[in-house]
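Hey, I'm writing a tutorial for new members on how sequence and structure tokens pair up, and I'd like a real worked example in the thread rather than a made-up one. If someone can provide the structure for the chain below, I'll link this post from the tutorial.
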Amino acid sequence: MRLGVNVTTSRVNNRISCRKPGGFEGGVFQNAVVFNPTQPVTLSGGNYYEVPGSASLRNPVALATQITDVGQTTRTLANGTAELDLVPGLTGQVTVGLDYFRGGRQLYFPNANPSARAWAVGLRGSTLRTTTPDRAGAS
């Protein structure tokens, strides 16, 4: 009987930006295209300028600097094999695989950001866990 095992694990830490289009408010680039360039980026008090009464147009600099969005993913791939010589010239083999993924994400809008005020959100986090057998069978 011969046995074999192969395991590999990876961990990725991401800082996710608001540069992608996001919902009806869009991301940094979409807002940069439609934001009036004659308006100030910041006000005299240091707060970011926002268009009064607008529910869908955001200051692109505020989006890029105020919002914190980080994610972590861990993935493990494992494969195992077992071979057995049944009779001379005939070998049986069983292969089993596992693909395990776990991820988490934390999204933070400070209260100074209009999106946080509109949605009444603070620190939000979620975790996704899945375990999926890759394949199992005999060959």
